[in-house]
Amino acid sequence: MTPARAPSRVLAAVLALVLSACAQQGGSRPDAASTGTVVAAPADNPTASTATPAPADAATPVAPIAATAVAEPATAPATAQNATTGNAAPATSADADFQALYGDSAGVNAGAVAQGALQPWDPWEKFNRKMHAINSTVDHAMIHPVAVTYVHVVPRPLRTGVSNFFHNITGPSNIVNSLLQGKPSQAGNSLFRFLVNSTFGIGGIFDVATRMHIPDKSNDFGKTFATWGWKNSRYLELPVFGPRTVRDAAGMAGDIPLTPLPASRSVVGQVALRTINVVNIRAQLLSTDALREGAVDDYRLLRDAWWQRRNYQIWGDNTPDASSQLPDYLQTTPAPAKPD
After folding, report:
1. Measured distance CA(172)–CA(262) in Å, rounded
2. Cα–Cα distance between 217 and 86 in angstroms, integer?
3. DSSP, residue by residue, 153-191
4. How far apart are CA 204 and CA 213, in angstroms?
5. How far is the CA of 206 from the CAs of 57, 302, 329, in angstroms?
6. Reduced to 3 states, what is the DSSP secondary structure of residue 245?
7. Under a CB-based contact definition with an 8 Å cutoff, are residues 261 and 273 in contact?
8. Are 113 and 314 in contact (CB under 8 A)?
9. Structural domain boundaries in the chain
10. Are the C-beta atoms of 154 and 196 separated by less than 8 Å?
11. pLDDT band at 8 (very low <50, low <70, confident <90, very high)
């Protein structure tokens, strides 16, 4: 019996040694980091440039730590960009749409309307809405049907001649207002256009000046008042004439005497010509009727569209006249003469 117990004691002693060795290793798994294992930091993470030894008794696996270190730089550029620009994200989609259409107050798109108001100044909205309703009623009952008939009956070349004629008679107003705005080059072009179209164009029916590549810039007293400092003005809708501002309505008092039509002594002739002009303008606006049919608020649509277009007409081309500047050779400092 004694020889048989010896092998069993030897096996028990070996098993005890194996268990003690496992206990000294702390129960670590083959895929766990052992003592002294170094976790390599990502190459593009400046905050983890130094290697840090992992503690031997850490129960957290190494993989999640490395994933966290790599994920942090992904959000860093966005935070840095916001800190650099100082611009917060738009609160609503409406704010984003407004910025896309009109730009920020210091943005690139604000150049055309920076001098005036971004949104219509309409303290007389109650009155303007009533006048808009009256104008819409008159338009649907009289002006619109006449304009549609005018387009169907009068050939296109003749309608073009009518438009050219009424555009040509604004020449004297363009000349005077260009001079008042300090734009002598535009005044010269307007004078040249008026003389060419009034003579070779047979009273302006044919636009010969455009074929001669003479620039065409329209000016009026409303623009002149804005250039002189009347930058913002109340919105006002007039009977028949439609959208205006108080500034533009006051400018009409200066523009009308500068047109050749008031020189006519026949009242009937003046009324007939102005009626034709109204019908001609309405015929050119027939293409916009489809946009207004589905509008929730027709007054607001017309007011905002006109306001933005008018601001662009006034401030979009508000650049100094090249002819009023000094020549290049007077603006540069002459180079010192070299000694002989």
Report:
1. 13
2. 41
3. HS-HHHHHHHHHHHHHTTHHHHHHHHHHTT-HHHHHHHH
4. 16
5. 95, 32, 41
6. strand
7. yes
8. no
9. 125-170+220-315
10. no
11. low
As a whole number of angstroms, the distance between CA 104 and CA 180 comes to 32
Cα 50 to Cα 67, 290, 303: the distances in Å are 17, 68, 64
Q: Tokens 């009518």 correspond to what residue?
A: 162
Residue tagged 């050779």 (tokens) = 329
Rounded-to-integer distance, Cα 230 and Cα 20, Å: 96
3-state secondary structure at position 38: strand
pTM here is: 0.59
Structure tokens at 285: 């606006």
**218-257: per-residue pLDDT in tens?**
999 999 999 999 988 999 999 988 999 999 999 999 998 8
Tokens of 145: 């049907």
Characterise 175 by phi-psi region: left (phi > 0), alpha (psi -120 to 50), beta (else).
Answer: alpha
Question: Is residue 187 within 8 Å of residue 233, measured between CB atoms?
Answer: no
**Side chain identity at residue 299, one-letter code:** Y
